[in-house]
Each structure stands twice: as C-alpha cells, then as structure tokens.
Automatic annotation (TrEMBL):
Annotated source species: Pandoraea pneumonica
EC number: 4.2.-.-
Pfam families linked: tRNA_edit
MF-aspect GO terms: aminoacyl-tRNA deacylase activity; lyase activity
InterPro entries for this protein: Prolyl-tRNA_editing_YbaK/EbsC (IPR004369), YbaK/aa-tRNA-synt-asso_dom_sf (IPR036754), YbaK/aa-tRNA-synth-assoc-dom (IPR007214)
Protein name (database record): Cys-tRNA(Pro)/Cys-tRNA(Cys) deacylase
Domain of life of the native organism: Bacteria
GO biological-process terms attached to the record: translation
Gene3D superfamilies to which the protein is assigned, alphabetical: YbaK/aminoacyl-tRNA synthetase-associated domain
Top-tier EC class: lyase
Amino acid sequence: MKSKATAETPATKALASAGVTFGSHFYEYQEHGGTRVSSEALGVPEHSVIKTLVMEDENANPLIVLMHGDCQVSTKALARQSARKRIETCKPEVAQRHSGYLVGGTSPFGTRKRMPVFMEATILDLPEIYINGGRRGYLVSIAPSEIVRLLSPTLVNAALAD
C-alpha cells in the first residue's frame, strides 16, 4: 500500500506528465468541512484554496468551475458569462460520474471526461494556489498560471463573498 507521502492520483499523474512542479499537502479530511478545514490545517488563507465544482447547464452538459474557497459561485452571473440559460451544481453521484473523483476529492486535472473549465479571474492575482490533488484530504500547491497552461479556462467574474 502506498503511503500518503507518495500518493499518486490521476491528477498528480496529469500534472507530472505536463512537467508541472507542485507541492503535496495532506490534511485530515472532514465531511462537509470544505475549504475552511483545509486552509486552517495547512495554515494558508482560505482565499488561496481553490474549490473545484462540477456543475451542469440546462442541457445537463457538465462543466468545471474553479472558485476561491471563501466565495460562492453566482450561477446567474456564470450562466450569463458562459452564454448558457442556467447553471446548477450537479448531484454528487453525477459529478463523480463526470469527473471520476469522489466529491470532496475532485481535481480539475486528470478528469474522466473532458469538460469546459471556468475560472474566477481573480485567482490569477494569487502567487500560489492550493487545489485538490485528486483525493479527499490532499491538496497540491501550484502557480495559477499552470491552470491556464493546462486547462485553458474561460475567465469569469462570478464570485460572491461567502
């Protein structure tokens, strides 16, 4: 059995194969703890912890939204900026089917299905971000520019203060 220190996930394989240098950060996962738990455990601002949300449009087409941990997504603003009629969060089992990851361990890297990615534009203002590494209780730290390089996200302004 692999130790946590050498955890390999589809996300870390995708990052490594793309030549991304990343840090590995483990914490004690808490059901429904969200980014508050991981930011406190790692001693980093919750604003720097990026959530990966699997959502779907009015035709049930999946998409990924990357948002600051201390913010909510305005689905109305996101729908407007993505030229969709409606966007809503997927049910956990649907999100898992699209991404290949358990909810709470969803990474935008190495997903089962290729999905369009929408990223809150202000994430690029941060020098380093912490984003899920493909399993519960595991974040990777990377430069936000790597998300742009690897995923070509559409930048949006859809953050609502939590």
